[in-house]
Amino acid sequence: MPEINVTPLGAGQDVGRSCILVSIGGKNIMLDCGMHMGYNDDRRFPDFSYITQNGRLTDFLDCVIISHFHLDHCGALPYMSEMVGYDGPIYMTHPTKAICPILLEDFRKITVDKKGETNFFTSQMIKDCMKKVVPLNLHQTVQVDDELEIKAYYAGHVLGAAMVHIKVGSESVVYTVSVNKYAKSHISAWIDKCRPDILISESTYATTIRDSKRCRERDFLKKVHETIERGGKVLIPVFALGRAQELCILLETFWERMNLKAPIYFSTGLTEKANHYYKLFITWTNQKIRKTFVQRNMFEFKHIKAFDRSYADNPGPMVVFATPGMLHAGQSLQIFKKWAGNEKNMVIMPGYCVQGTIGHKILNGQRKLEMEGRATVRLLISFALTKRLIHVGKLLACVFCFHTLQLDVKLQVEYMSFSAHADAKGIMQLIRMAEPRNMLLVHGEAVKMEFLKGKIEQEFSIDCYMPANGETATVTTNPSVPVDISLNLLKREMALGGPLPDPKKPRTMHGTLIMKENSLKLVSSEQALKELGLNEHQLRFTCRVQLQDPHSDPDTLHRIYTHLKSVLKGYTIQHLPDGTVMVESIVIKVSSSAEDTNAKVLLLSWSYQVKHRHCPCSRLSKLGQKHNRLKT
Amino acid sequence: VKWKKEATNELILKQSVQKFTNFCHPTLPCNVLKFKSTTIMLDCGLDTTSVLNFLPLPLVHSPRLSKLPGWISKDGTINLEKELKDCAGRVFVDSQPEFCLPERELLDLSTIDVILISNYHCMMALPYITEHTGFTGTVYATEPTLQIGRLLMEEVVNFMERVPKAQSATCWKNKEIQRMLPGPLKDAVDVWTWKRCYSMQEVNSALSKVQLVGYSQKVELFGAVQVSPLSSGYSLGSSNWIIQSHHEKVSYVSGSSLLTTHPQPMDQSSLKNSDVLILTGLTQMPTANPDGMLGEFCSNLAMTIRAGGNVLVPCYSSGVIYDLLECLYQFIESASLGTTPFYFISPVANSSLEFSQIFAEWLCHNKQTKVYLPEPPFPHAELIQTNKLKHYPSIHGDFSSEFRQPCVVFTGHPSLRFGDVVHFMELWGKSSLNTIIFTEPDFSYLDALAPYQPLAMKCVYCPIDTRLNFHQVSKLLKEVQPLHVVCPEQYTQPPLTQSHRSDLMLELQPPPMPYRRCSVLNLPFRRRYERVYILPELANSLVPSEIKPGVSVATVSAVVHSKDNKHTLQSVPKPPPVAPSKKRKRVMDEPPVVLAPKPLLSGAVPLEAFLATLQKHGITEVKVEETADGHILHLQAEDTLIQLEEDGTHIVCDNNEPLRTTLRDLVLRFLQKL
């Protein structure tokens, strides 16, 4: 029985370092190739030695597919392709292809230039790796080879994020990052009812069921507005590329409408570039933005200005977007430390925070933060993803000096899940859309996955898997076999079903399946003989029945004919001029012996192919005897 | 999903290509293909050359046009002064310009299931087909095709609606009267079907029926046919279409280009293995080299500007204009035109320039790489930023105050019958310093200029048509090798004016099948096979036997389920066991159980082996008699004869069912079953 194997090398019951191996129909596919933000040793990257202990991966993988540009989905790519060795195709969408190398280069700079790590991938390796990338268009069916085809759908998580449908023969798998259920509002339709054998989904927000986006937006604006009104400062830690742009648009329009004067700042060198990407890839953003972009490009902001470090100490209300998003380093952390002591201020966390980050701590209600030097250093380095972190070096120096730093958190902490990760509702909706036969969860915490797994199994009665890293989930598939049927045969069968084929009324058909090399052809038996150049072998049976009848041979035959006609209703009975009677395809002949003209021999002859319901042997011979009795 | 009744055997191609009054290149196709009972319309082109018969629509009152004399027949019997005007010896209709529609009588438009659009120039008739006709199908197009197509339609509607014309001339269309008119009005075809432009509301309604597709996306139609667009290299989002089932493949090649301009290059390899290739939309200018024309365009432009004149470029607001602007971007500095203002005037100028920058996926590789930097793919962004290129929705408003001469103006419509171009013709036509440069190949420039005669301004004709020429087509066909080629009649003979140019026609083996307007072709292939799916349960129950090395057969008895044109084969359900209480008295009354028919047999029964087998089964007394065709075996104890021949076996015995069954099974052991 054919089966599909799924093995996470990363993101199995864990968040970060997404890397999932799928074996389907003899093809091996790697889905995502990410790094883990929480480690800076070997565990940073997926364990590729699972695939092979020695040598390159090219021979073991048919293709690599990257879902979106976040580093926990593509951070290990140059390491995998250039240092471990992989020369096959790497598929990703155009926006991902554009943004991914920039983030990789930032990541590299921080790791190598700042921390001084060696044995890391180089700029050239990133370039060489990107040369292996084949860009994917939405809905384009890409034939990786003769058998393996992939198709990308809009996922709406971040710019250029995609779901992928992987198909070999009639087996298929869908892999999706955090699907944004609002993806449906995107002009390109959502996934179709493709009924994959497995749907692999992230489950970062497995336990959250969020209220409508509009509510959250209103809530967000209300909170910002209130803080500004009372003269407080609002800090919104974000990542340079992602939801930030949407939140900016939201505030920009709000400011315009309410005629607010408080300054809004955006603090990252990458922003301008990021906005530029959004402008050029506007077809990948939501419908509202696309529709109006000619009149007014939403990514050209009037109220939002570039941030300078000195502004943080300015008096009066302000709103600052600062990177990175989990408050683990950089500008956002600096500003946080400055503003944390004032209860008038507010920090709004718009996304998920990995365990160990300050964002995670304050969201869990921690009000006193111990900032240990060493721990901070490690965090700083592993999370520093943006160019802004050139300051990291300076910051490091001061953290080293202080060793421990006590921070009282007095400002208000608000959590607003604007991050586009899927929540339980989104995943359930996706299952309803795609109707998978099995479900597999990755990229989430084990406990939360367990909850979602139960929910899915209960609601959809499908199996749900959640393999840990290095563990393989196996799903047996039961594919039907595609066969080419001769149109004559099919039509003959269709014609039997009446002029209008009733889909509910099954029709039986009989034919011969010819298996030659890779082709399967279903034809009528006669055609099969012809095509194979074979002669038919006739198998006939003849049965002799003795009877006594004084009439001449033709008369006897005629009497038999009339008798049969009266007895066998519903059968075709013919008296042929050559002196035979045909009951359907059974031939009846009469001959008399030379000695005794009354002793007649009835010859019943039929071929092997006569259908059983006509098979005369017993019935007709009994008839013959009956006839015999009648006559005598 | 609509249920489609059974599959038809042949493929019918209904053709309603526009007839061109001035030249004979069917570049605006509108075909209908019937394939497996699916009715597919291929493109929806609108013949706009009919507008050349009308007077231009001026934006501001033109004393010259209003003073033109009316037309009265020479003998004075027909007086159409109000409807027809005479300009420099040619007669024009004084009414809102009208378009010649695709043939709509040949088939009921409500039976069309889908319309496939190949590029934005070939969808301009869409509202005439989808609105008020009962059409309920779906239109498939790529995103750039839809967006830019919408802009082009919006532009035409805007051009027409902003100068409404009170009168609508109809008398001249009377057959008797038309016959008496001077040419080319006399020869205009189907004038009764000519229609005024649609409204914006109709455009919106028509375009709401469009479903977006990406290149190489496989779209299933009723489960019977799969269609898929391929890049055709001609314009942003332009596509050729593959229409196929599992066993038949029709390629529709329309408006393709092998030149390197801004769009993604043409996908040729996917066209391979076609049974039929429908070829339309070849270049209208087979003798004009686009590169040469571009050079001529630049040098004429520079010459005029240096002499202090203005340059007018009548053009569509999307397409070649992007290439012209890119060419000028490189040319401006070297020709020291840095201070010359370039104006692009169209109600959709801004949208067109903006839209061109956001379709990175649909652009050629070089332009795609720019987006990764991130930089705008087209250099006109820089021209706009540096104020070298300015765009305005019309000549009214800002333009009139910012306008400086000498300058270069790009504006529409290329027919010179409506749009802002009419104003510039009136403004600049009288001075020989100015130049008009025609770049669009759709209209004959002499006809376009006719209502402006006498004209002092210089005219330069450098039509840029990047579509395939005959040389490229024959190379392409050699590469993709379709079994049959179907093309408009015009491609199978050299142009009338150049009858000696045998290089300006398609020469193929086998010769292409030509079609003309309103003809119906039966495409030359027979469908022989259809795809069915054997469900796993049935598949597992099949018993294959090897007939020849590498060839196995298995007999299949199955229940066919057909749904949405997909057929699956399932195991025959076992008949429910008859309850013993309901034992029938007469065997013959039993309802006929549909049993698998006995298979056909093949092979021969070898005598020695058969005798040995008989022996094993206790039949020892066998007398063998040799005959001409084989042997007769006499089973003496059983009083039974078995006649063994090369292609037949005959068992003759009395009423002994068990024996007959045994013998049958023994014989079957030696034969192959099919």
TrEMBL record, chain A:
UniProt-listed SMART domains: Beta-Casp (SM01027), Lactamase_B (SM00849)
One Pfam match: Lactamase_B_6
Molecular function GO terms recorded: hydrolase activity; metal ion binding; RNA endonuclease activity
Annotated Beta-Casp domain residues: 244-362
Keywords on record: Cytoplasm, Hydrolase, Metal-binding, Nucleus, Zinc
Gene3D superfamilies reported for this sequence: 3.40.50.10890, Ribonuclease Z/Hydroxyacylglutathione hydrolase-like (3.60.15.10)
Family the entry assigns: Belongs to the metallo-beta-lactamase superfamily. RNA-metabolizing metallo-beta-lactamase-like family. INTS11 subfamily.
Name of the protein: Integrator complex subunit 11
Native source organism of the sequence: Amphiprion ocellaris
TrEMBL record, chain B:
Residues in Beta-Casp domain copies: 321-449
UniProt entry tagged with the keyword Transport: no
Region named Disordered: 564-586
Domain of life: Eukaryota
GO CC terms of this entry: cytosol; INTAC complex; integrator complex
Compartments it resides in: Cytoplasm; Nucleus
A GO biological process held by the record: negative regulation of transmembrane receptor protein serine/threonine kinase signaling pathway
InterPro entries: Beta_Casp, Integrator_9su, IntS9-like_C, Metallo-B-lactamas, RibonucZ/Hydroxyglut_hydro
Listed Gene3D superfamilies: 3.40.50.10890, Ribonuclease Z/Hydroxyacylglutathione hydrolase-like
Keyword terms, alphabetized: Cytoplasm, Nucleus
Keyword Cytoplasm: yes
PANTHER family, alphabetized: INTEGRATOR COMPLEX SUBUNIT 9
Stated family: Belongs to the metallo-beta-lactamase superfamily. RNA-metabolizing metallo-beta-lactamase-like family. INTS9 subfamily.
Name of the protein described by the UniProt record: Integrator complex subunit 9
Annotated source species: Amphiprion ocellaris
Underlying gene: INTS9
